[in-house]
Amino acid sequence: MTTAVAFTAVFSVFGQKTSGQVSYDVFVSTDDPQTESYISNMEGSMLELYFHDGKIKSELFMGEFMTTSTITHKGKDTALVLLDGMMGQIAMKTTEDDMSDEQKLAMSKRDVELVDETKEIIGYECKKAIVTGADDKESVVWYTTEIVPEYREGQYLYEDIPGVPLEINSSWGKMDLQMVAFDYKKKIRKPEKVFSMEIPSGFVLRTAEEMKQMRQGR
Q1: Are 117 and 127 in contact, with CB atoms under 8 Å apart?
Q2: How far apart are CA 196 and CA 209, in angstroms?
Q3: Which pTM value belongs to this model?
Q4: Residue 73's CATH number
Q5: Which residues constitute the domain of residue 67?
Q6: Number of independent structural domains in the chain
Q7: Which of the 8 DSSP states describes residue 186?
Q8: Which of 4, 75, 83, 218 could be stapled to 90 by a disulfide with Cβ–Cβ 3.0 to 4.6 Å?
Q9: Distance of CA 83 to the CA centre of its chain
Q10: pLDDT tens for residues 27-45?
């Protein structure tokens, strides 16, 4: 490796952004007539994704239905999940043991294919990845290698994808979801509050089993 090439490689690594907040518009569509009646209530849906110093937080605002927040810390097996919607304000502290067999299979069988295609999103060159789940459903992710959190795990950040997604195309039941980034901030205000694992005032702590019973009773 020549000196010039080595310098370029080192500069590229140190030039990467490892912290920040990405904001996405969430567009929901469906071909199912019954599901279509719910789509209008999901207008204005958004996703906020935060990452900093081995911590991740996602906040999904699904229109008038529900806000779901998930916080994970690297090296800790417990995640904090906050649900704010029709069932009230509910907090759960979940581990891998709380996952269903179907969820565990989905995580373990997830396959990532990096594709040699590019496009620009909010000023960043993005590369394409195809993620195939255990159910053989495919999601298309456009990610940038200019923003690379040191800790990548969960629903929106993948260890096998070397960057942050700026567009995600996936499905949820009978709905198709498209999440497209419209803003990226390099700094997070009050990160100790953003990534706090303390249960906010007004939220009731429930176990995974209690949540299962609540859903079955509806």
Answers
A1: yes
A2: 24
A3: 0.86
A4: 2.50.20.10
A5: 18-206
A6: 1
A7: S
A8: 83
A9: 15
A10: 999 988 888 888 888 889 9
